[in-house]
Amino acid sequence: MRIGVAGLGTVGVGVLKIIEQHGKLLSDRTGRNFEVVAVSGRSRTKDRGVSLDGMTWYDNAVDLASDPNVDMVLELIGGSEGVARDLCVAALEAGKPVVTANKALLAVHGTELARLAEKNNVPLAYEAAVAGGIPIVKAMREGLAANAISRVYGILNGTCNYILTEMEETGGDFAAILKDAQDLGYAEADPSFDVDGVDAAHKLAILTSLAFGTPVDFDSVYIEGIREVSAQDIAFAQEFGYRIRLLGVARRTEQGIEQRVHPCMVRKDTAIANVSGVFNAVVAEGDFVDSTVYEGRGAGEGPTASAVMADVVDIAAGRVSPTFGIPVDKMTDIPKIPVEEHVGCYYVRLSVFDRPGVIADISAVFRDEEISIESLLQRGRSPEEAVSVVLITHEVKEAALSRALEKIEAFDHSAARPRMIRIAKL
Amino acid sequence: MRIGVAGLGTVGVGVLKIIEQHGKLLSDRTGRNFEVVAVSGRSRTKDRGVSLDGMTWYDNAVDLASDPNVDMVLELIGGSEGVARDLCVAALEAGKPVVTANKALLAVHGTELARLAEKNNVPLAYEAAVAGGIPIVKAMREGLAANAISRVYGILNGTCNYILTEMEETGGDFAAILKDAQDLGYAEADPSFDVDGVDAAHKLAILTSLAFGTPVDFDSVYIEGIREVSAQDIAFAQEFGYRIRLLGVARRTEQGIEQRVHPCMVRKDTAIANVSGVFNAVVAEGDFVDSTVYEGRGAGEGPTASAVMADVVDIAAGRVSPTFGIPVDKMTDIPKIPVEEHVGCYYVRLSVFDRPGVIADISAVFRDEEISIESLLQRGRSPEEAVSVVLITHEVKEAALSRALEKIEAFDHSAARPRMIRIAKL
């Protein structure tokens, strides 16, 4: 099996190391030998700690697709457009199997690429695109193949989980912890892709398609990041028996599919709440298998390369699946439920001036929207400064809660925008 | 795909239900239709809640192998010998794929059956044999295929985990909780297969082979069940920050492979310690992927049938692997390390008469065996009754600890056999 590797960043280098170190293991498992015959990267001369001897160098990664010595293309460049996409299209059109770690590409162009793969009768595999080293794509597509999936959710971004865990452990604020994470290399210089929830949403869109046999639909994912999670929210969460995690949730209901990424309050005794630091975890719920949990490292050289190579091994051994578990023409279009329709319990933190009647006014708004309150906590007592009033609601439709919070924000005694965090029903 | 189902107990019935309820899903995923054409069970007339209409009935399950209408055989009878084994052999020899949920069969005759499957060029699959609905066999064999595995361990028996969790939550004794578990259907009338660790050892032997590419070797698994775990041990464990779990552990060291099933003290903050009730969980550690965790239901109609059908779907879609991940002739014989050679920390509970000098005598024995003590706790004070002395050791070879405990047991002031529980290094 002669491989062309496009992208010699962390993941590409990890792949070269596995092929170098585990040649015997890989050939024992598949009966085939693996050789990297061609590569493409940004700089030809950079020292990456692995040898590129004997490999053809391409300045333009797309040329890997037409190299007659390349049997399989690994796209490890990233990004939903440009070279990464062009290379995948060119390789599939040339009838060459493609393995990619590119979540953005799959989330945005997944269905169209799946169709192209089917048309050319070649596999398109992407285990590394979701939750790094955890073999969750395989589990969803093959391991749980006999189940109707009702929900899949999880911690899909290690950077956010690291930040939230650190905030919890140190009591620090988002900005300070983000800075630490950047210094430690756990967050990018431009962190927005991670902390604003986009990366998790890419992964969720892919999981949704795998879970429900529906075309990938990244645009309908509701996305809210973790920038507004405050040290105060984390402290209140603890008081109520919760931790805050950035979750991606895809759920099938009679009305359609919910797809949402946002901070969640999760009960401390759940598996998800106990996933700390840079780890990822995914929970998949099927009608026969019930709940299954998968946990591991969601990023990094070794884990991501491990997932890439699992795909390479599968393809070399002739184990292939339709890209999203079923062929594109068998997919079902399922309506997407907007987040306003979401029904759940909510944590609400209000910042108000502690004047007589303020609680009565707030309660009246909730009563008018028919929102019932499970608990209410007022912290601090200071006539001229803002104090926190924290509420946990019973189940309510999100649209009603949003209306209530708008009304409260307009109050004279409101000192800041109300803050709301959804409570996960796990 | 015409299927013959041998065994119409819980799992067999679950399989019939999946095929009945998910016909479209299964054919969308594979492009093939699934039909159960023949069955064999104990009683032809029993009402199982599923229809057997149109299926050929066999009193002798082995006859399924020679039915020309049967393309694939599901062996859901159980037991390492007799009909189950005969059927698998007959089906493989007839060139028919076999899917089984039979851990005992695989643990005892796995290598020989794998060889037979290879000789006849047909798949032998057994996802349901290890950890029920969790797709752990697939993860080990395919998802982590590019890794050298250093260790695989986990909670492999839901009955034991239920009993230990209940003992912890209620403070009850083993015998009483076992009785409850039997009443609730979580434990068999004859519980020995579960509570003495044999079932977990079967699964561990299979995982060991998958992890290290070595022939299955059930006989060299060290096995110790949970009958001797007392309410007192559980209370002391909590005091030291541990929980007690029955673990199966397979570990590769420079000397060889450790394979052991026994109660373990696990730190409360680990993923494994937070697995409660009838759930199973497996942790697999690879050199590139690092640590990955898999959790779910380890038994029951739905989860086990889900795993059986995952194998059926794979085979129907042409996705096959060598039985244990690599062909039998590529397997390596690796020496097994006896438990006496195990090096670790230990929890020791002594029951002694509280006389002057007793602690000095105990300490001297540990000193002579060069065992250093991390902490020591004496509970109770009663000159004429037995009191508990609890010790946590630093790392020591098990043989030395055993010698020390033998000496202590021979003391005049020993009131009962010393009790030892290994502390897991997770």
TrEMBL record, chains A, B:
Pfam (any one): NAD_binding_3
EC supergroup of this enzyme: oxidoreductase
Cell membrane keyword on record: no
Keywords: Amino-acid biosynthesis, Methionine biosynthesis, NADP, Oxidoreductase, Threonine biosynthesis
Domain of life assignment: Bacteria
Pathway membership, UniProt: Amino-acid biosynthesis; L-methionine biosynthesis via de novo pathway; L-homoserine from L-aspartate: step 3/3; Amino-acid biosynthesis; L-threonine biosynthesis; L-threonine from L-aspartate: step 3/5
Family: Belongs to the homoserine dehydrogenase family.
Protein name (Swiss-Prot/TrEMBL): Homoserine dehydrogenase
